[in-house]
Queue: 2 jobs
Job 1
Amino acid sequence: MGDEPERSLSLRAAARARRRSMGQLTSLVATSVALVWKSGRGLFVLLLALQLTAALALAGQVLAVQAVLSAVLSEVSVGALAPPVLVLAGLSALSLIATGVQGQVQRLLAERVTRSMWRRALIVATGVALRHFETPEFYNRLSRVQTNALTRPYQVTQGLMGMAGGLAASVAVAAALATVSPILLPLVVLGGVPVLLTNRRESRLEFDFALEQTVTVRWREYFTVLQTGRDEAKEVRAFGLSAWLMERFERHYDAYQRDLVGHVRRRTVLTVLGQLGAALVLLVTLLVLVWLIAQGRIGVAGAGAAIVAIRMLATQVQSLFKGVQVVFESGLFLDDLDRFLSLGTAAAEEDRGDEAPSSFRRIVAEDLHFRYPAAETEALRGVSVELRAGEVVALVGENGSGKTTLAKLLAGLYEPDSGAILWDGRDVAEFRPSSLRQRVSVVFQDFVRYAFSAGENIAIGRADAPPDPDRVRAAARAAGAEETIESLPEGFDQLLSRLFPGGRELSGGQWQRLALARSFYRDAPLVILDEPSASLDPRAEHALFSSLRDALRGRTALFISHRFSTVRGADRIYVLHDGLVAESGSHEELMARDGRYAELYRLQAGAFLESGGDRDA
Ligand SMILES: Nc1ncnc2c1ncn2[C@@H]1O[C@H](COP(=O)(O)OP(=O)(O)OP(=O)(O)O)[C@@H](O)[C@H]1O
């Protein structure tokens, strides 16, 4: 499955990440606090107030216990016992209520933090250069971010609150304990240290485990998508893939669970060690307390209150250190997220340059070379083409000859490794990439079928402007989609998807017309159509190409097609072969040349003739 190099890369990255993370923890904690604060100031303050209330109520309970015990021991009347008992009950209720409300407030705050994290991650995911989507490393990070952007900010919130609450309660209870017996204080605080040490180690184990498992988890997720996806459902049934896919799914899950057992075992050992250490210190503290009682240095009431305080403090100190652990652990993941988000910053920095002009007279691509990231060979090995304003130019060639790659370069989605694309003599590298992409309208072979209304499916061709219903209709007409849309129960407002209630589905060809309408609506001077008629019936295809120049209204079109009957009408045809332009010219010129084009043309025409089809072709 090719996991091994990937795995060792992740491990090396993990080691690097760990070194960086240790140094950056403080700043990550500061970032987390700022994030939570920005996401919901009111809720943040409310939470802190609740923590403080709970902490003070706890400390009050220590003093109340002492008062109750003193009252009991001095054998006062039942009436005199009532006030401290009532205070104790009231404080206990107050701390429980404050803790209970905290849980709900935390949930609201965590959701806000999650939302703002998602927002940032999605901006990056839609903004980074397309080349990132060619590498597994990018998907690994994206996968971790998707998982952790959802859970970690919540945990940071909890961790911070745990720390704040633990700290406030520890200080308050410690102050109360100090009034009873100051000697015990350092011992109780010492009790938290073993847990602090083991917690830090556990955090690192958790992060390393997540890093190591990324690829396994992604494989597992891929198999769930195959088994639950709507598009895949047909083939899964038609080929009877259910058992086969399940077996693969189980295999990845087995691997994960095997590793998880080892990981959980290591974490459990650490937890037990930490707790044993804490219990040992607690034992010493209690022995010291017994010694203090034996020495007569502390009264019975004071001893009772001290026992309550020691128990409370031990819990609070642990909660404080647990909070530190959660923030530390999340910090490692947030560091990961941080590096993902920095891709967005880099993308924003890359998007600089002059505005691309709104029209051109001539686009010339000169000697373009391009290799996909991680590919061994070049997809384009020195391609030169020319597009003049208002022309319809065709790209033909065998599968894998480089047509779509050339289209992607001309659309500004990738940059050539060498060579240049010139708009009226100016290298497009000078233009702001996003402004160049605005000047190009592309319909890909595998265009997206958006689960939006028919009108929105067209109008998002220019998502930066409010939709213009007249232009949407005109684009639909030009693409031959108007009639289909009109026949839908809700016309242009019809939701197109069976995924949501009230949606309708279209046929492949009908979807293709909608995608074409989207590209016409975009109103860019260059329109690139990658096999625009692959799903169209012969009548629709004929109608499209005979009205293409009208639909383009003076714009330039570059289209890719394997159907020579549509290609022959182009002003110029480029024949690509193995990443190079093998021939170019008009249909007549290429036929006269009797080269590769003529051969492919005759092959297709011959197939028709043999089957008694179009003799003119
Ligand atoms: N994302 C990618 N990563 C790596 N290599 C790729 C990628 N996409 C395409 N290639 C390779 O680049 C070469 C050109 O592919 P391209 O898609 O441009 O061909 P095409 O002429 O459009 O083919 P088709 O007629 O099948 O659509 C092929 O060898 C292909 O394997």
Job 2
Amino acid sequence: MQSIRFLRIPRFSPNLLFFHLLPLKPISKIPAKNFSSQMRSSPSSSSSKLLFRQLFEKESSTYTYLLANVSHPDKSAILIDPVDKTVDRDLNLIRELGLKLVYAMNTHVHADHITGTGLIKTKVPGAKSVISRASGSKADLLIEPGDRISFGDLFLEVRATPGHTSGCVTYVTGDEPDQPHPRMAFTGDALLIRGCGRTDFQGGSSKQLYESVHSQIFTLPKDTLIYPAHDYTGFSVSSVGEEIEHNPRLSKDLEEFKKIMENLNLAYPKVMDMAVPANLVCGLQHPASS
Ligand SMILES: N[C@@H](CCC(=O)N[C@@H](CSS)C(=O)NCC(=O)O)C(=O)O
């Protein structure tokens, strides 16, 4: 299905809002599945703006991301990588901002904390849990590479970035004129700022992680903003160009990268034995509630 429109399209960055007159290219549906929070009410309602918040859970140093299409009447919102301990904070924020949470998404099965997605489903009727099919987890939507996750007129595309775990994905904002510019990549634990996820459990593979990051993230425009699932050193955001140049692990060649990863000598996450089984059912140890 295609539509051609010439409209006043807002362009925006996460921090600054710009408005330009742009011709809107034909929209063509990609063959992979389209997960949409609502039907497009009118082909001419294209005004959209992103609300973006980066939220932090200090015990596990996890970032949760809130994105919403605030110019759309539905004010549809999504959460990426919510943590069970901070679900009430996140839901209060969503309530205060008058948003409607449609998807609670995971980038992967976390080993260091319990996801908030299952708990959110018990508190927000209609919100759907999302994780990759390759993760082997239960969720309402099992997404695959190339799928689109829509909220209002905005969308994320799904890229497979295995290596930290076999089911890791990166969510990237759309590559169309009415989508955020610069693009934003929510990399989970595949790519951290000046680091990357460990590869010593949960089907991890250094070679696979290296190939994932180089083929799926480092090929994005250099100004693409990198938003990871963790930071242990005080960083909050980076860019593709910055990580290509300065990432002390992934800027090396594959053989050197593998040696670095073999010698990380990290202790296993303290709650791993409890977190992994729980996260396979979206954080609730009750399959029916996933
Ligand atoms: N100390 C923490 C776990 C820290 C850790 O292992 N982090 C993971 C991501 S969460 S599984 C990781 O990949 N770290 C990479 C690195 O270079 O630090 C705990 O006990 O939970």
